[in-house]
Amino acid sequence: MNAATQPEQGAIARNPVLRVRELRKVYGRGVVVDRFSFEIRRGECYGLLGPNGAGKTTTLRCCLGLTDPDGGEILLLEQPVPLRAREARVRVGVVPQMDNLDPDFTVTENLLIYGRYFGLRDDTIRMRIPALLDFASLTLKKDARIGELSGGMKRRLTLARALVNDPDFIFMDEPTTGLDPQARHLIWERLKQLLSRGKTILLTTHFMDEAERLADRLAVIDHGRKIAEGAPRELIAAHIEPHVVEVYGDGAVDWARGIGAQFSGRMEVSGETAFCYAVDPAPLLRDLEGRSGVRYLHRPANLEDLFLKLTGREMRDEA
Amino acid sequence: MNSVTRSANSIVEPAHPARSHWAAPRPSARFLPVWRRNFLVWRKYMTERILSNIVEPLITLVAFGYGLGSLLPPIEGVTYLQFLASGSICMSVMYSAKFESLWGAFGRMDTQKTWAGIMNTPTAIDDILAGELAWAATKATFTAVAILTVIWGLDITRAPLSLLVLPVAFCTALTFSAMALIVTALARGYDTLSNYFVVVVTPMVFVSGVFFPLSQVPEWLRAIARWLPLTAAVDIMRPLVLGRMPEHLVRGFALLTAYLVVCYYVALVLTRRRLLT
Lengths: 319, 277
Fold this sequence. Notes:
Number of helices of chain A: 12
Number of strands of chain A: 14
Oligomer: heterodimer
Largest sheet of chain B: none
Largest sheet of chain A: 6 strands, mixed
Radius of gyration of chain A: 23 Å
Structural class of chain A: alpha/beta
Distance between the termini of chain A: 46 Å
């Protein structure tokens, strides 16, 4: 490339790492992704939040060029997708929802063999492997077979494998699903390290605490449509009263329909529990303090409240 | 494809997803790491594989060739043992390629999701299938080496020309592998693979001149057999093993190549349809 055709460095840094416009994907008669637009800036962690079947994984697959959209435009690391998806994937790392590590090989061999799919030379990959093992806290397991690893170790190896090509941009599809709390915290800590190194991350999750902790910005999607977008705290502040009083136990629902509703900005009942959303929780708490049988929990509003408000409380089984 | 030249702000008419599944194959040199991965797995279990590669033809040749063959008159000017040995090398090459592209490839695609992992890299499905083809043919060639060793060891024939069987084995195995990859792309489970083997592959062995000459089958069946890839493989490989140049070399290769090209393309379209959704 000569100087004239090469965009200046500043322009590259300003351009979004991923730009999706009016993305549409239809399976049979069902619209899975419906005119979804978003942009991810360099160095940020962007979350895609949605119930099962909301179109998160399909959006990811479209962005990687693994399935053709039925409409819309995708620009991934300056490359149009799906047309030049192969070229774009050279600088992308992917942590899939399901581990697909190679069971015939050891931990080290998995990294080596995966690096070759990027066209990397063996000595380049071998030079990177110690740091990758260290990052995944798997140095002691470097010669172990995949079958000998715990769920958390497999996830960490999958994460290390996604970094073997030193990608600028990492796709993570529900990276902590199925992990115990210790393993989840370790993964979160590693993701923060990656962000501090300037990597960009696209994260899908249905764990609200995960999104709240990691995402700089996020989009809530449901039925393939974007229904909210922004920084987690700002979104909560914009959509939800700051205080939540959860009331449960005998008579909780009756209490909530009467006094609860009267003192709340908004009140919802789900099963045996009532959720009272309020700007000023004092009247609710005063009334509840003296009651027997009814138990309650006062907490600040969080992303889960926002999510449930936007997507409803009914079960989603059509994943 | 005009999706790049479209102006950035226009709202786009729907593309037809089916269209790209039918696109011409675009395999690249990236098929090599896929081949290499499979080779490395094979190498891990090499000792056992080689042992079974040698013992199996040894048993067949001893039992049928020496046992049954001693009761039979010469066929087409050679002993039954020579006839059988030169035919069964084709059969083993075919079995080896089919097994690898059915059970092996299906396991990597469906059970282990190895292909899904690879597809997240710049290595695309076109490369994966090309790598699988090349690997199945390589493994079938190893089988041919083992059997040829047995044939030489038992002094069934030691014609120098028989070494040419090895490159021919590689080429014919590509064809058998491509056919099997179609079934793999359509398979709903391991039962589909077994059914294909029982209903298509095994009967083909009996009408392709491996165990007895085609002159023994009815005219109508012979007409079908002439167009089977295994018959073409036998027609090329048997004379070579016995030290003669094949008569129908060009026709045989043309037929095998036609099968290969068509089947690789069909397998690719079906695999894209299965995985790129």
